[in-house]
Design goal:
This protein is α/β, with parallel strands linked by helices and 180 residues long. 39% of the residues lie in helices and 16% in strands. It contains seven helices and seven strands, in the order βαβαβαββααβααβ. Strands 4-3-6-1-7 form a five-stranded mixed beta sheet, with helices on both faces. Strands 2-5 form a two-stranded antiparallel ribbon. α3 links the parallel β3 and β4. α2 packs across α3 and α5 crosses α6. The chain is globular.
Length: 180
């Protein structure tokens, strides 16, 4: 049987509030982000989770630490859940990111990576999760690029359409990871 996957974005950060595209910079949760992390934990408190996987960037780890404090679910950091590396443009204004995003589906950002490379690292993670968590539900906490990769790999959407669409937050996305 397949893995049931719940995907959540990390909580709001100081950079989000300043309209900065953090990329591979660590980031720090804002006060409202810490509140959101508590809410995220409440949202899934009655769901039996085998594990929570999180990006190894601080903002995602903080989200998981706050959301799942006091629960016995293992929290595992994995670099394959990192945001797209904007390279020398990490920390750029969000307006610039949005204007240039479509140019980096296959072409890496200067000294960084492309969205296709994010999808490739996500594919690697999904293979591992399919083997490790058969018949289980897991939760991932990551970034926008990770959600696009999941939608591309598990729902057949195109990166071209996804990176061009406005961000449409919701309280968790559900996916099914097919058997390995």
């Amino acid at each position: 049987m397949a893995v049931e996957l719940i995907y959540e974005t990390h909580s709001r950060t100081v950079d989000n509030e300043r309209e900065i595209a953090t990329g591979w910079l660590q980031g720090e949760l804002s006060a409202s982000g810490r509140d959101f992390a508590v809410e995220l934990g409440r949202r899934w408190q009655d769901t039996e989770l085998a594990a929570v996987y999180t990006s190894d960037l601080r903002r995602a780890r903080q989200t998981a630490e706050i959301a799942f404090a006091g629960r016995s679910v293992p929290v595992i950091s994995d670099a394959r859940l990192r945001e797209c590396n904007y390279g020398s443009l990490n920390g750029m204004p969000v307006a610039r990111l949005e204007a240039e995003r479509a140019q980096h589906i296959d072409t890496p950002y200067p000294d960084g990576q492309s969205y296709r490379q994010v999808a490739d690292q996500t594919r690697s993670l999904l293979r591992e999760l399919a083997q490790r968590h058969q018949h289980e539900t897991i939760l991932l906490i990551g970034h926008s690029a990770n959600r696009w990769a999941l939608q591309c790999l598990l729902e057949g959407q195109t990166l071209e359409a996804l990176v061009g669409a406005p961000f449409d937050w919701q309280p968790g996305w559900r996916f099914t990871v097919p058997d390995a």
